[in-house]
Amino acid sequence: MNVEVVIVVSVPPTEKDLDDLSFAASRLTNKQDSTAVNVKAENDQFLLATTFTMKTAAQYKVVDHISKEFEFSTVGLEGYQEMIISFPW
User: Fold this and answer.
1) Do the Cβ atoms of 83 and 21 come closer than 8 Å?
2) DSSP single-letter state for residue 31
3) CATH architecture, range 2-86
4) Could you tell me the pLDDT band of residue 24, with boundaries at 50, 70 and 90?
5) Rounded Cα–Cα distance for residues 32 and 17 (Å)
6) What number is the average pLDDT over the span 7-17?
7) Is residue 52 packed enough to be buried (19+ CB in 10 Å), middle (13-18) or exposed (0-12)?
8) pLDDT average, residue stretch 12-29
9) Dihedrals φ, ψ of 53, to 5°?
10) What is the pTM of this model?
């Protein structure tokens, strides 16, 4: 299944921040080459979008695990505002 984790921050991310997001995805994915991290500036915010695939499971069973993995990997992320987890088709 497809997963997208968007983290909203108020300052431009560093290369380490992007590496940390990629690391979090690599720990969750079932296919290493499916991970991607993109940055989009929007108004006064930066949207850090991480996409990857996981083994198909009920979303309610994996959303907390995804959240905890990304929280652990981004503990030092400056300007953190919110995290949005979705499961696009």
Assistant:
1) no
2) -
3) 2-Layer Sandwich (3.30)
4) very high
5) 19
6) 97
7) buried
8) 97
9) -110, 155
10) 0.95
Place of tokens 């921040």: 17
The length of the chain in residues reads 89
One-letter amino acid identity for 70?
A: F
Rg of the chain taking only CA atoms, in angstroms: 12
CA angle, 18 then 24 then 30, to 5°: 125
Distance CA 43, CA 48 (A): 14
**For residues 66 and 35, what is the distance between their CA atoms, to the nearest angstrom?**
14
In 1-89, alpha helices (H): 15-28, 59-73
Structure tokens at 58: 């009920």
Helix (H, G, I), strand (E, B) or coil at 86: strand
Sole residue written with tokens 């995804």: 66
CA 14, distance to chain mean position in Å, is 15
The distance between the two most distant Cα atoms of the chain, rounded to a whole number of Å, is 35
As a whole number of angstroms, the distance between CA 79 and CA 25 comes to 21
